[in-house]
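A further point concerns the way the authors explain their paired sequence and structure data. Showing the layout once, in full, would remove most of the difficulty. For illustration, here is how one protein appears when written out as sequence plus structure tokens:
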Amino acid sequence: MIVDCAVYQSGHREPGTLDLDQVAAACRRTDAFVWIGLYEPTDEEFDTVAREFGLHELAVEDAVTAHQRPKLEMYDQSLFIVLKTARYVDELEVVQFGEIQIFVGDGFVVHVRHGEASPLAEARRRVEQRPDLLKFGPGAVAHAIVDKVVDDYAPAIAGIENDISEVEYEVFSDSGTNPVERIYKLKREVLELHGATVPLVEPLDDLTRRSFALVPDDLDEYFRDVHDHLLRIVQRVVTDRDLLSSVLEANLTRVSVRQNEDMRKISAWVAIAAVPTMIAGLYGMNFEHMPELESTYGYPVVLAFMATVCVLLYWRFRRSGWL
């Protein structure tokens, strides 16, 4: 689905939208470029765009099928950038991931978005308010999209860090719960965030250090700012990953401790119950000659003896911390 298709001349958007059969003429105009946004296009929809701009077949295949790792590649005369997007869904307490592919060429920018994360309408509005950046052409649009994607990592990480704090409290509380499943799911999401952010460091570094004809040198400092922001995001992701590993180990330790405490309590009660069981078992053997068998006070004496021993054992186990 084509979300938006517009032509930009000298840093300003021209009124209205374009049809695909008009983009070729618009791309050839001086100081003008076309920006097309697509959302989960079908093969037929994207094939029309690919033929119009002469996109490389390998990049087209990646854009349609998605599920690519973040990367930066040059195909013929176009630049191909793959980004992983992320957003935190508070109701479900999960992170949803998506993907954006950007084609940057001479006189055009085409982005293909998959998933609900990082909608780019805001990025388009933001960069349209900066004609001083838009005058640099398609490279400025690529910066706006990358900047939006990297900015959206922060709320996702904040949501995960809030969940980690809740899990930490749950692990060290006295409730006796075992949140190992939630810890594992959080660890899985952090690893996916790690896979979305870390591979993007090198492409952004290339955009700031290498010379690309489609990305003017004037944009280097802007990409460098995004790169620095991304490095801070990566550091938070690595910290959260290590923290979750520590929380998981602490949870396993707490479970082991609780199991040991339960075993000690069970063992103490078994020891206490063994005394009356043993005595009752002896007197239940029905031998004819047994001590105190015909004594008037034999029954209360035996009961008192069993109660005394049980109380002494309870007191001793209580004092030693087993009960």
Remarks:
- The CA atoms of residues 190 and 241 lie 6 Å apart.
